[in-house]
Write a structure and sequence with these properties.
- The protein has 200 residues and is an alpha/beta fold.
- The chain is built from seven helices and nine strands.
- The strands form two sheets. A seven-stranded mixed sheet has the order 5-4-1-6-8-7-9, sandwiched between helices. Strands 2-3 form a two-stranded antiparallel sheet.
- The model has no long low-confidence stretch (mean pLDDT 88).
Amino acid sequence: MAPVASIHGLILSGGQGRRMGGLDKGLQPFRGRPLIEWVIERFEPQVDEILISANQNFSRYLDFGYPVVRDRIAGFAGPLAGLHAVLAQASCELVVMVPCDSPFLPSDLVQRLTSELERSGAQLAFATTPAQSHPVFALCRTSLAEHLTGFLERGGRKVDAWYATLNAAAVAFDDQERAFRNINTLEDLSALEQDWRAWR
C-alpha cells in the first residue's frame, strides 16, 4: 500500500469582508471566540499542517500559532490567490482549502475528498451538497501550481472557471448540508449566535 500523502490545510482569510462592511470575517467573535478558531478546531485534526491566508491584520493571525501567507497577487484577487501563494511554496503533495467563515465544517471533509481524489485520479476534488457546489472546500495536488499561475496571469479569478480547465471531481456531502453554511454578513453572524445548535 502506498504511503498517505502529506496534506497541508489552508484557511482562507484573505478577503476584504465587503459584505461585512469591511470587517475581517475570520476575526469576528462567535460565542466568545473568533470565527477562525472554530474552523481551526474542526480542521486541524484532519491535516498535517495548517496555514492561514491573510492580507490584513497579519500580526493578529500570527497569534493563532500557524504560518500566515500573503497573496502574491495584489488587489485582493480572491480565493485562488490564497491557494496560489501556498502552492507556490508547498513542500507537500496535497493542499486542502476551506474558508474562515464556516465554523461547523465536516469533521470528515479531508478524508472524503482524499478518497475520491485517489479513487478517480482527479487533479482536484471539491465538495457539493444537493442545493449547490462548494468550490472553496477543495483538495488539490500541488503539481497544479504552474497551471494556476498561468490562469491567474491571464486574468482568471473565478474558482469555477479554473476548475473547468481541470480534471475536477465533485464529492457529495448530501448528509451534511448544514456544515457548509457560512457567515457573509453581520446579520448572518447574529442569526448564528441565536440558533447555533441548529447549524451543527
